[in-house]
Amino acid sequence: MHRYSDAEIDAALSRLPDWSRVGECIQRTFMFANFVQSMAFVNGIAEHAERVQHHPDILVRWSKVTLSLSTHDVGGISVKDADFAVHADAASALLKKA
Question: Which run of H or E residues covers position 73?
């Protein structure tokens, strides 16, 4: 695994339109109907993070959850972060349909 170049980060973000680069992380804020839905999302993210052994920084603000992803092993953004972002987007969409 390697640290993404600026071009690779731009390419990944072009496939993740709701995500943005913030320094050496990619970040997105998810909006939910209420705190309970936010926490259901966080719990699902925590379970996924343990399965893949890749843990985001998580900020919860009632109906908003912000995920920040960076791969500490490579000192920046990698494929692990892009893959996790895809999973988080899908998990959010499923939760909102329920």
Answer: none
Assess contact for 23 and 31: CB atoms under 8 A. Answer: no
Is 82 in contact with 74 (CB distance < 8 Å)? no
Q: Measure Cα distances from 76 to 6, 34, 58, 59, 73 in Å.
A: 11, 32, 17, 19, 8
Global pTM?
0.95
**Structure token pair of residue 86:** 């895809």
Residue 98: what pLDDT?
72
Report pLDDT for 15: 97
The rounded distance, in Å, linking the Cα atoms of 68 and 70 is: 7
Enter the CATH code of domain 6-97. Answer: 3.30.1360.20
Tell me the Cα Rg of the chain.
13
Residue with tokens 């920040």, as numbered in its chain: 68
